[in-house]
Amino acid sequence: MASRIRPEDWECPLSRAAQHVGEWWTLLLLHDAFDGYTRFDQFQENLGISSSMLTARLKTLVDDGLLERRPYQTNPVRHEYVLTELGRSLRPVIVALAAWGNARLAPEERSMVLVDAATGAEAEPVLVDRATGQRVDGPDFVFTAGPAASKPFQDRYAARPTPKRR
């Protein structure tokens, strides 16, 4: 079966990110890891995933550098799966996806909400530009070709501004 992703799309950061976290189980495993789960049996019990599927997903997350596999017991050898710095950097993505999902539900239909750990106040996450504090989800922010863009990407974004470093 032919791939639906064209080779020229691999330079797109969205395509590359989806390669790592685009599978349903992957996002759920990362969510569990953010909640402090580290052991195979914890992931399996919480997600109800088969051993073979869980083994494959965890191996991929380790191979991609999102989780680190570490022994926590020697006899018999048992391993735990701990988020790496790269894996932890995905937390805002998971938070944003959950917030997007919750925004489409009535408050009484939400099974999980993000709250301030100190106050319990429900949070409403937004993505903002670090330099200006402006939300980036509106028309004032657009994608444009970056320095490594191929000719097709340069053509696609030809009418957009050229990136300037701050």
Short structural description:
The protein is mainly alpha-helical and 166 residues long. The protein is 39% helix and 9% strand.
Question: Can you tell me about this structure?
Answer:
The structure is a single chain. The chain is mostly helical. 39% of the residues lie in helices and 9% in strands. The protein folds into two domains: 19-89, Arc Repressor Mutant, subunit A (Orthogonal Bundle), CATH 1.10.10; 90-137, no CATH class. A two-stranded antiparallel ribbon has the order 1-2. The radius of gyration is 19 Å and the shape is globular. The model is unreliable at 1-6 (pLDDT under 50).
Topology-level CATH name of the largest domain = Arc Repressor Mutant, subunit A
Tell how many strands the DSSP assignment holds. 2
Radius of gyration over C-alpha positions, nearest whole angstrom: 19 Å
Question: What is the beta-strand fraction?
Answer: 5-15%
> What's the number of domains?
2
Mean pLDDT: 87
Overall helicity:
25-40%
Tell the overall outline: globular
Q: Ends: how far apart?
A: 45 Å
Largest sheet: 2 strands, antiparallel
Q: Largest beta sheet: what is the strand line-up?
A: 1-2
Structural class of the helix and strand makeup?
mainly alpha
